[in-house]
């Protein structure tokens, strides 16, 4: 989601710049757009080596990108505190390129209500409403 202010936002497209996660626990490959405190989109490429991507990891992808959108800083922690609603597919095949989008609905201190969705070939394949705790733990 582009900024409505018309100003370009510079950001690092590498999610490991914002998150403490590293492979094999980093489930966002690249950040495409980022408007801190508002929204973020990212890409996940399901590699052939893993066979398929377990659908529950789509929730983790949304949570990781949501933490970045919430303004997670390097060295700060984050926790997926609650899943209010989640709709997941049976499986995601190897080779799929997934577009993950998250939006901060509201924030209260370190708690953030995040809506997320995952698209494959333009179709929504997963969506969820998550509560994240982001900040110094």
Q: How does this model look, in words?
A:
This protein is mainly beta and 137 residues long. The chain has a single domain (17-135), classed as Thiol Ester Dehydrase, Chain A (Roll). 10% of the residues lie in helices and 46% in strands. The longest helix is centred in the middle third of the chain and has 14 residues, at 56-69. Mean pLDDT is 87; it is low at 1-5.
Helix and strand arrangement:
Layout lengths: L29 E6 L3 E7 L6 E2 L2 H14 L7 E11 L4 E2 L3 E12 L2 E10 L2 E13 L2
Antiparallel strand pairs: 1-2, 2-6, 3-5, 4-8, 6-7, 7-8
Protein name: Beta-hydroxyacyl-(Acyl-carrier-protein) dehydratase, FabA/FabZ
Keywords: Lyase
GO molecular function: lyase activity
Series of secondary-structure elements, N-terminal to C-terminal: EEEHEEEEE
CA(first)-CA(last) distance = 29 Å
* CATH C-level name: Alpha Beta
Instruction: Catalogue the unreliable spans.
Output: 1-5
Q: Total strand count, please?
A: 8
Average of per-residue pLDDT values: 87
- Percent helix range: 10-25%
Task: Tell me the Rg in angstroms.
Answer: 14 Å
Give a short account of the largest sheet. 6 strands, antiparallel
Q: Mind telling me which CATH architecture this is?
A: Roll
Give me the side-by-side strand order of the main sheet.
1-2-6-7-8-4
Number of helices: 1
Q: By CATH's scheme, which homologous superfamily applies? A: Hotdog Thioesterase
Strand percentage: over 45%
By CATH, the topology is Thiol Ester Dehydrase, Chain A
Number of discrete domains: 1
GO molecular function, one term: lyase activity
Keywords: Lyase
Protein name: Beta-hydroxyacyl-(Acyl-carrier-protein) dehydratase, FabA/FabZ
InterPro entries: FabA_FabZ, HotDog_dom_sf
């Amino acid at each position: 989601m582009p900024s409505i202010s018309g100003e370009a936002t510079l950001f690092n497209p590498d999610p490991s710049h914002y998150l403490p996660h590293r492979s094999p626990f980093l489930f966002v490959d690249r950040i495409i757009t980022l408007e801190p405190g508002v929204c973020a989109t990212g890409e996940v490429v399901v590699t052939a080596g893993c066979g398929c991507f377990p659908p529950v990891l789509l929730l983790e992808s949304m949570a990781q990108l949501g933490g970045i959108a919430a303004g997670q800083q390097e060295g700060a922690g984050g926790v997926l505190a609650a899943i209010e609603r989640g709709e997941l597919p049976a499986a995601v095949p190897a080779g799929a390129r997934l577009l993950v989008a998250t939006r901060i609905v509201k924030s209260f201190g370190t708690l953030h209500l995040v809506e997320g969705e995952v698209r494959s070939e333009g179709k929504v394949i997963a969506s969820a409403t998550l509560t994240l705790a982001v900040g110094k733990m």
